[in-house]
From TrEMBL:
Residues 1-34 form the signal peptide. It comes from the Bacteria. This is Surface-anchored protein. Keywords: Membrane, Signal, Transmembrane, Transmembrane helix. The chain crosses the membrane at residues 283-304. The lineage of its organism: Bacteria, Bacillati, Actinomycetota, Actinomycetes, Micromonosporales. It comes from Salinispora tropica (strain ATCC BAA-916 / DSM 44818 / JCM 13857 / NBRC 105044 / CNB-440). Residues 256-276 are annotated as: Disordered.
Length: 326
């Protein structure tokens, strides 16, 4: 009996470190917010959580503007961050026209590196430049809204879904050290074109329009949240390219391209019901803590049962020896 108790006690003692290790691994591998990345060098900015959403129509033809994800009434969406005024605001793409004036006209260089534009060298195109020109709207994107940074897992995906206009659109990056251009979006491509933007990113690019007129551009922003959900929204951007293109025409334009209405994900709908993004992470941690408590309680009960069994075995052994003496 005593040797049996010793074996049980050894098994219990061996179980304790293994259980503790399992709990430690579970807790340390729980989902957590990714570390924020630094903004693109030379484009440092921060966005306050309380920056308002402006109402009413606006034509933006110069100054600093970004596309960016944000929550509006707990719904994930894509907005325009308007930094053209002293107090920056967010704007609804449906109520905003981005004006690309004739000041944006540039000549396509005679360089095979720019063949991806699909335009003959020497012809003029409208360019929203990567480096700011004070006479031209300066358009980029950011992932710097505070709630967005707290909720997304590492970054977002920005996708071009379609373009309707009199010419083509090409968006590309080019570093200042004579590096080759890096195309991101080309409207001549028939499929969606995604690229990745890390959390706390602020980037500007070159936007090339080959002809004046109204352009409707469907852009989707999607992300995985640290709580495990996936969110996505598609919005239509409106451009009036060229001085002769009217803003009214841009507002009135419609197109049969994806993104004519915002697409909200199921996770966004859940957020509207009052469940904040990332709630599932808190729930998971609570469940893990409860399991840890139950495990510890079970181990204590097992030890107590073992001690009672030992005492009973010792009493039975003593009785047996007394009977043998008689």
């Amino acid at each position: 009996m005593t040797s049996g108790w010793a074996r049980r006690r050894t098994r219990v003692r061996g179980l304790l470190p293994r259980c503790a290790l399992a709990v430690l691994v579970a807790l340390t591998t729980a989902p957590a917010a990714a570390a924020a990345k630094e903004p693109t060098p030379g484009l440092s900015q921060s966005i306050a959580a309380d920056q308002p959403l402006a109402t009413g129509r606006a034509e933006l033809g110069a100054g600093h503007i970004d596309l960016g994800p944000r929550y509006v009434n707990d719904r994930w969406t894509l907005l325009i961050h308007d930094g053209t005024q002293a107090q920056p605001v967010w704007r609804d793409p449906d109520e905003t026209v981005l004006r690309v004036s004739d000041a944006a006209l540039q000549t396509v260089p005679d360089d095979p590196a720019y063949a991806f534009l699909g335009v003959d060298a020497g012809k003029q195109v409208y360019v929203v430049p990567q480096v700011q020109n004070p006479d031209v709207v300066w358009l980029g994107w950011n992932t710097q809204d505070p709630r967005v940074m707290q909720s997304i897992d590492r970054g977002v995906t920005l996708s071009l879904l379609g373009v309707d206009g009199p010419g083509t659109l090409t968006t590309y990056l080019q570093s200042g050290n004579f590096a080759a251009p890096e195309p991101l979006w080309r409207s001549v491509e028939p499929k969606a074109q995604p690229f990745w933007a890390e959390v706390n990113t602020h980037t500007h690019a070159n936007w090339v329009f080959t002809a004046p007129g109204v352009y409707l551009i469907a852009v989707q922003v999607s992300a995985n949240l640290i709580g495990g959900e996936t969110v996505s929204a598609t919005r239509m951007l409106r451009f009036a390219v060229g001085d002769g293109t009217s803003v009214d025409e841009a507002y009135a334009a419609t197109a049969d391209v994806p993104g004519s209405a915002e697409q909200a994900s199921p996770a966004s709908d859940r957020a509207e019901d009052g469940k904040p993004a990332g709630e599932s992470t808190t729930l998971l941690l609570a469940v893990m803590v409860a399991l840890t408590v139950l495990l510890a309680t079970g181990l204590v009960l097992l030890l107590l049962r073992g001690r009672r069994a030992k005492r009973q075995a010792e009493r039975e052994g003593g009785t047996s020896l007394s009977g043998g003496d008689r």
